[in-house]
Amino acid sequence: MRRRSRPRRFRAMPRRAAGVVVCLILSVCLTAVFGGCAGTAGPGCNTDLDLLSAAPGDSLGIDPFLRLDAAVQADRRAEAEQDRRRAQRTRDPVERIRLTSRATRAAPDDPELWLAAADAWRAVGDQLQTGAALDGAAAAVRRLNAPSTPLAARGPGYRRQATLATALARAWYHYDRAEWAAAGDWALTAQQVEAASVGALEIRGLIEGRQGQTSRVTGITDELRRLDVFNPHRRWIQAAHDETLDRLRGALAQVLDLRPRADHALECYRDMGALAERLDEWTLAEEWYRQSAAASPMAGHPCLRQVRLPLLEPGPEGRPAREASVWLAMDRHYVTGSFSAYTRYAFAQFEAAPPGPGRDLWAGLAVNAAGIQLRRLPGHAWALRVRGLVFAATGKVDQARDDLRRASVAFAALPSGADARVEAELGRLLLERDDLSAALTRLRRAVELDPAAAAAWADLGMALATVGDTQGALTALTRSIELAPERPTAWYNRGLLHMHAHRLDDAERDLGRAAELAPDNGDIARLLQQVRLTRKRVGDGAAKP
Question: Residue 301: which region, alpha, beta or left (left: phi > 0; alpha: psi -120 to 50)?
Answer without folding.
Answer: beta
